[in-house]
Amino acid sequence: MARTKKIKKVLVANRGEVATRIIRACKELGIKTVAIYSEADSNGIWVKKADEAYMIPGDPIRAYLNFYKIVDLAKQTRCDGIHPGYGFLSENADFASYCEKRGLIFIGPKPEHIALFGDKIASKKAMKEVGVPVLPGTDEPITDIDYAKKIAREIGFPVIIKAAYGGGGRGMRIVEKESDFEELFRSATAEAEKFFGKGDVFIEKYVKNPRHIEIQIMADKYGNVIHLGERDCSIQRRHQKIVEIAPSPRLNDEVRRELYRVAVKSMFKLGYESVGTLEFLVDEDDNFYFIEMNTRLQVEHTVTETVTGVDLVQRMIQIAEGTRLPFLQEDIKFRGYAIEFRINAEDPDKNFAPSPGKITSYYSPGGPGVRIDAAVYKDYIIPPYYDSMIAKLTVWALSWEQTVNRAKRALDEFQVRGVPTNLPLLRQIVRDKDFLAGKFDTSYLDRKLPKFR
Ligand code: ADP
């Protein structure tokens, strides 16, 4: 039987908009918060929003990764829980275990599940065993190039090479034909080594023009597992999501139901706990395949919150406290459509390279059906060390068409000056006929970009 323990004070082990998001959730639950920040982040808005805030000196990135220091600070400030947000320590199983060892509640899944799903090969295997379709591919990491080539030939080109312990689209290479294989295999391995410290890669069948559909899962400590619907994250640039939608405007109902069924069943079988997301690719014939699972809160959770009315961050905290889910699957009602736009400080004229610097003027949209999650303001200087996302705009309306119209209006209201952003690109996407018609897959943006310029 799981224990129940009310969390009274949370250390937020993150920065930026997600730190603000977590602090907001805590405030509404009457939970005190402790923020951390690096030397480069002393002007961060989350630093002011928390009840207490402490600087972690030294390297600006390592400040958010130094888990011994972070846990020490949580103990010194008498916190009883730690929320890792997304990125940084959020999918570090050792961190989760260490929190528990020091008597802190890690607000997230069990370390064993973080470890399992952090390994893309092991997680595909585990999901296959519980009846979830996966793409044909290697079931162990490969380093030998001749063996790799043999496997690729067996799977049949095109194939995709992926970093076994990767993320963020890094260490990934699409190989159209055998003659390109060796070169791309070498560069994938080198990139995986550089970014993840492990050069291990695996190979799987490459799906042409798939849609990226992911299922939001929520599970308590008592075996109650529900889903909160899907998100369509097909609008990507270089395999990185930019626009996310709930529900998918063009998904066959039968496929949708089947995705929900396998997602809930597999998570029940594995004994998963907390929130989590199962990512699938859906091919042109509506076959679907599991690609990976994210054992954390995701950037795009806002669209799910908007169409279901469920606060995912508050639920995560309450699940970690040992509270039972207060609703059944049939209590979850989906209403309308939500679209989230990632506003990134990046320069469209420099191939979307990050464009840190000072925001000289900032005006965010409002009015009905508009939600903003941001951590920037006028005169804020975006530091160069972190992700380029500066704000998220989430719009909601009852019909798909109304939602797209609202998105146009809200994106037009949005003003960020001083640094280039991807706002002009987002405005073009929502004015595109194919977008309105729901005709998009993961190759949509690469296809459209030359026409948008
Ligand atoms: P990461 O963890 O690096 O984000 P994912 O495995 O989640 O990598 O894949 C990210 C994106 O890459 C997917 O949304 C999709 O666009 C593309 N992708 C991944 N695997 C395949 C595949 N087998 N076939 C086609 N596209 C793929």
TrEMBL record:
- What Gene Ontology molecular function terms does this protein carry? ATP binding; biotin carboxylase activity; metal ion binding
Q: Which Pfam family name is an example for this entry?
A: Biotin_carb_C
Domain of life (superkingdom): Bacteria
Q: What class of enzyme is it?
A: ligase
Residue ranges of every copy of the ATP-grasp domain listed in the record: 124-321
Query: Keyword set for this entry?
Result: ATP-binding, Biotin, Ligase, Magnesium, Nucleotide-binding
For this protein, the record's Gene3D superfamilies field holds: ATP-grasp fold, B domain (3.30.470.20)
EC number(s) stated in the UniProt entry for this protein: 6.3.4.14
Taking every annotated instance into account, which residue ranges of this chain make up the domain Biotin carboxylation? 6-450
Record-given protein name: Acetyl-CoA carboxylase, biotin carboxylase subunit
Per the UniProt entry, what species is this protein from, by scientific name? Persephonella marina (strain DSM 14350 / EX-H1)
